[in-house]
Amino acid sequence: MVRERIEIKKIDNATARQVTFSKRRRGLFKKAQELSVLCDADVACILFSSTGKLFQYSSSRHMRGEELNGLSLEELQELEKTLESGLTQIMAKKSAELTEENEQLRLQEASIDKEQSAPESKNMNYEDGQSSESVTTSGCTSSGPSQDCDDSSDTSLKL
Known about the structure:
Blueprint: H1 14-39, E1 44-48, E2 54-58, H2 73-117, H3 132-136
Antiparallel strand pairs: 1-2
């Protein structure tokens, strides 16, 4: 039986996305372990879930900070340099992602503010010769026919 290929795109269902993340994380760590054994390579994987939780794998106990007693000063310095380099790259990428996300949120906020601040009077239809000012002017005028003036309303329309 042949497996069906899936389109690689974000999974909309949060539960299905979490299940897929867990399964693929285990698969990735298994492949990293196999690569380490087959090729005698030092392999380290760091994953952050969408909630920010950290997952890690390291083929070397030294990379995990274990069994460091037997290492010479030069080996410790090389290990430190390797770890700092990797951490710097991760921090730079994460910072770029957060900066991009912040910019997108600012653009969304500006768009929403623009939509909300658009004057609603644009959509009002006025009779011939009537300005928007006369429609929105508050208070009573003595020029029109005598009608009761309602002071509880911010806008009044004299016909």
